[in-house]
Amino acid sequence: MRRTIPAGHLFAPFAIGRVELRNRIVMLPMTTGYAESDQSIGGRLIDYYAARAEGGVGLIIAPVSPSPAGSPVDAGLYDDRFIPGARRLTEAVHAHGAKISALLITCYHLILPANGTGRVPRRAADGTGRVRRRAADGVPPTPGDPEVVGPSAVMNTLLRVVPRELTVEEIEFIIDQYAKAAARAERAGFDMVEIMAGGGYLVNRFLSPLSNTRTDEYGGTLERRTRFLVEIIDRVRTAVGREFPITVRLNLHENIEGGYTITEALRMARILEAAGVSGFTSYIGRHESPVPTVQASVPKGAFVHLTEQLKHTVRVPVTASNRINDPFIAERILAEGRADLAGMGRALLADPGLPEKARTGRSDEIVPCLACSNCLATMLTSYRRWGEPASAVCAVNPAAGKERESTLRPARTPKRVVIVGGGPAGLEAARAAAVRGHDVTLYEKQDRLGGKLLIGCLPPHKEALGVLAASLATRALRAGVEAHVGQAVGRRAIEQQKPDALVVAVGGIPRLPGIPGACGANVVMAEDVLTGRRSVGGEVLVVGGGMVGCETAEYIRKAPPPGGSAGDPDALRAEVADAPRTGRDDGLRAGCDGPFRSDCDGRGGLIEGPVRGVTIVEMLERMAADVPVTSRPFFLARLKGEGIRMITGARVVEIGSRGVKVAKTAEGTDVTEWIPCDSVVLATGHRADNAAVAEFAGLVLETYVVGDCKDPRTIRDAIAEGFATGRSL
User: What's the pLDDT tens digit per position in 127-144?
Assistant: First the structure.
């Protein structure tokens, strides 16, 4: 269903200082690792940002390092040699009508003048990519080594190292580096600069009483803790002049014990506004904070109440951030006057064309960000292992960081292509092939397109998978794919059609473990529970503690018994309408309205209740080992909060009618335990459907096998493989 964003806010022009923006969508800064190995800006990074500018964003904020080692895999601006590449970037963005700001960011490491030449080594001398993390131990740094530094020698819990406290002379040097980098940004054609003061990075650590215990002019009172940032702004203003906009990405709440809250942040904002900043972009939390901020379990727009308080405190423009990956949510925030601009980060990594699709009434074609955190987890290595190459990946956009080589060009010879299977791999192969001009027919034996996504969207917080299924199907159909649902095809149908190319994407099938009792009447498969084909109750034991098993356990724990209302869209909207405008759940979950609402409404299967308890048994030593590291702690905390028992390092050796026998190995000896339960759920993975694939063997000379029927993997693998196949036809 096509639907256009209401006029008047999201796509209205806006100005930050002298800079006129065509709309109010801001691409927030994200570290991607797409810069060249010497930190210069090359074709890869230019293509990446140019695609987002062409996609209709109003302002792009691109992270750059103002000092050697300040941001290890971002582009550099600490030397004049970076200006030519930066100028090519700004010209490319401007050519598509967008504006661009340089985010000056120093994370945790620095190479200071007293530490050798100031040249950044790309890898350590031993070739491992690791560097020694200099603690406050009195050991002088080796020339050229980056050091972990901070305002005080207070443990950096993300890096697990105590930083060396910066001297006043070094602080002065860093301030000067910011000013020189800002001047280079202006010379390179950037429209403004932004200072990063969030995330627990260096400037944020000066602001925070948790990490700043100095007793000199840069520590103590809030005003003195803010002095470092104020002096950066003053020096930058001197370097770029009065009219060049300077904004600050300010952490509004650190979400960590001992850190500052919104009350202190608003006082800082008044000081910074008086110092001459042109605007603010909100930031919430630190990377080491125990409060999730970007995960799928966080409601959309959950922290906008903090941005709203900032907007009512200052007179300069304010950009909202965090979990704004839906244009309808963004429009609502602006319409209610809670921010001046809407910041989106990973939503534009997933779909660079999001703004233009929303503006032109094609929001149902938007590829949704799943908030899976794969991109963030990939980049975390660049902080913990300085100098080790890292490159962001996107689960739903295989072209991210590969824009030029991923272009779908018209085929020299159009072909008749048949796709068997309408899951993510098949749909993406079909779309890519159709865009190239092939005549594509797709068959799906189920009555809906989407494959396993239609099951994956049923556990809590996975609704975006339903949106993804709808988007994949919509884009394939509009590209010209002829899709037949509820229609299974076999050898005879393919022989009759005689296609030039055949793509087999029939998916995988659940793996049934060879455990005695696995076929018992009290044993069900995880997907049968989620879809409602089978029910469970009483004490439930889930075999398999990967992502699917854990999500199924959470679903069982939270799903309603017959007659319950959880998952009812009308009940959800009523709950949203009554939600307060304070606290983390800010009542903006209604972003599921309209085209951005998933077809998966959470109904799934009902539970043959009541469920008295849920236990997960995992043979590995780590529960949920396949969940991205940036989401796993929050995910496990949710399970624990639901009272789900988790047992690791245990093998299920027998399933009985009243319980399960598990074995743990201790000092070479198996120790068994009998766990009573009423229902057993198998979440033991999938395997390739070799029989289904074999049915199509030898029929068409040009045959491809893609997705889970080739090898069960992730959504990212399925989409990437489908895209590559469709592009190669």
Answer: 333 344 443 344 555 556
Q: Are 602 and 456 in contact (CB under 8 A)?
A: no
Q: Which tens digits make up the pLDDT trace of 96-108? A: 999 999 999 999 9
Report yes or no: 65 and 54 within 8 Å, Cβ to Cβ.
no
Q: Residue 429, SS3?
A: helix
328 and 593 Cβ atoms separated by less than 8 Å: yes
- Is the preceding peptide bond at 13 cis, omega within 30 degrees of 0? no
List beta partners, residue 609. Answer: none
Q: What one-character DSSP code corresponds to residue 299?
A: P
> In residues, how long is the chain?
729
* The token pair that represents 618 in the structure block: 């995992």
Q: 676 vs 123, 449, 551, 627, 680, CA distance in Å?
A: 54, 40, 22, 28, 10
Rg over CA atoms, the chain: 27
DSSP 595: G
Q: How far apart are CA 501 and CA 498, in angstroms?
A: 9
Helix H or strand E segment including 250: strand 246-253
Q: pLDDT (tens digit, 9 = 90+) per residue, 48-88? A: 999 999 999 999 999 999 999 888 789 999 999 999 999 99
In 3D space, the residue among 506, 542, 538 whose CA is nearest the CA of residue 708 turns out to be 506
- Give the DSSP H or E segment for 55: none
pTM value surpassing 0.85: yes
Burial readout 658-697 (b: 16 or more C-beta within 10 A, e: otherwise): ebbbbbeeeeeeeeeeebebbbbbbbbbbebbeebbebbe
**How is residue 166 annotated by DSSP?**
P
Dist. CA 66–CA 75, nearest whole Å: 9
Structure tokens at 712: 């069960």
Helix and strand numbers (H, E) in the chain are 22, 29
Above 60 in pLDDT, residue 600?
no
Distance CA 29, CA 103 (A): 7
Task: Tell me how many degrees the CA angle 536-541-542 measures, rounded to the nearest 5.
Answer: 95
Q: Look-up: residue for tokens 């839906």?
A: 326
Q: 571-595, pLDDT tens digit by residue?
A: 322 322 222 222 323 333 333 333 4
Give the C-alpha distances (Å, rounded to integers) separating 598 from 376, 457, 467, 666: 24, 8, 5, 47
**Whole-angstrom Cα distance, residue 65 to residue 88?**
17
If we measure between CA atoms, which residue out of 100, 69, 94, 53 comes closest to residue 247? Answer: 100
Distance between CA atoms of residues 550 and 297, nearest Å: 14
Cα 78 → chain centroid = 29
Q: H or E stretch including 182?
A: helix 168-187
Q: What is the mean pLDDT of residues 358-380?
A: 90
Burial class (CB in 10 A: 0-12, 13-18, 19+), 486: exposed
Give the 3-state secondary structure of residue 64: strand
Contact 646, 632 (CB under 8 A): no
